[in-house]
Design goal:
The protein is an alpha/beta fold. It has a single domain, classed as 3-Layer(aba) Sandwich (Rossmann fold). Strands 1-3-2-4-5-6-7-8 form an eight-stranded mixed beta sheet, sandwiched between helices. Helix 3 crosses helix 4. The protein is globular and about 50 Å long.
Length: about 270
């Protein structure tokens, strides 16, 4: 297929959820990347999240990127194509091309982090500044392939016995530069599947690089809670994220509800 035509073709596995309030001007958009250990996609981390974002006045795009048996760089290629397609406006929605963010859960958080740190796919048409999101939200993300490793993600993305170089290249905390976008992250301290060290290491690297970042660590909560609507404590993350988005000018002060409480542990590097 012609590269130009391909660039404006809707990516496979994409769901579009337009902002609830029609706008007469371009508004931000968020690419949602559900988790699933690079083996499947967690449905509760997909359209329900997009509908929340749409309620805040942003367009949301859910991407079901390729998973195993597909290997790296397939998921990242899918995500970079999605970011470029969203910026292009080929979907017909009024999107502000300079405010296209990403929100990822677990393995989807790894895709989001590798997008943010400009990990290469080997395709020059994709490995460009236009594929890097302008803002990132990471929810209990997998970040490192070298420390506190989630072996299932490594096996599904890289196969058996990957090289040390491959593991390092896909460890987002080791590839942070000043081009990484502002980032909001949250995790639970007792996450038994993906250690909170992933978020801690990444935010530490962002802080050293001078990237605006905010991290919330909740004391308790299992992995994979998504919106956490049934957990009064952890569900605060959405309000905290809304307030952060407002601070960056992505949503209005009228949009959504703002959390009045804060979790037990808050780290703010901004």
């Amino acid at each position: 297929m012609d590269p130009v035509a391909q660039a404006f073709q809707a990516p496979e596995g994409m769901t579009v959820v337009a902002a609830d309030t029609p706008a007469d001007h371009a508004v931000p958009a968020i690419l949602v990347l559900p988790g699933g250990g690079y083996a499947h996609h967690a449905e509760h981390e997909a359209e329900p999240v997009a509908r929340w974002l749409a309620s805040l006045g942003m367009h949301a795009f859910v991407l079901r990127y390729r998973t195993a048996p597909h290997r790296h760089p397939a998921p990242l290629i899918d995500a970079k194509r999605a970011v470029q397609w969203i910026r292009s406006g080929a979907h017909g929605l009024p999107v502000d091309a300079e405010r296209v963010g990403v929100l990822g859960f677990s393995a989807g958080g790894h895709v989001a982090a590798t997008l943010s740190t400009s990990v290469a796919t080997g395709d020059a048409s994709l490995d460009t500044h236009g594929s890097v999101p302008d803002l990132a939200v990471l929810c209990y993300p997998v970040v490192s392939f070298t420390s506190a490793v989630h072996q299932g993600c490594v096996d599904n993305l890289l196969g058996a016995s990957p090289s040390a170089l491959s593991l390092r290249n896909l460890s987002a905390e080791l590839n942070v530069t000043r081009t990484v976008p502002p980032t909001f992250a949250w995790h639970t301290a007792d996450d038994a599947a993906v250690d909170a060290e992933h978020s801690l290491r990444y935010v530490s690297a962002l802080t050293r690089a001078g990237i605006p970042t905010e991290l919330h660590v909740f004391p308790q909560g299992r992995h994979g809670l998504g919106m956490a609507s049934n957990d009064a404590s952890i569900s605060q993350w959405t309000g905290l994220c809304e307030r952060w988005l407002q601070g960056h000018g992505w949503i209005s002060t009228e949009a959504g509800s703002i959390a009045e409480a804060t979790p037990a542990t808050v780290r703010d590097g901004q």
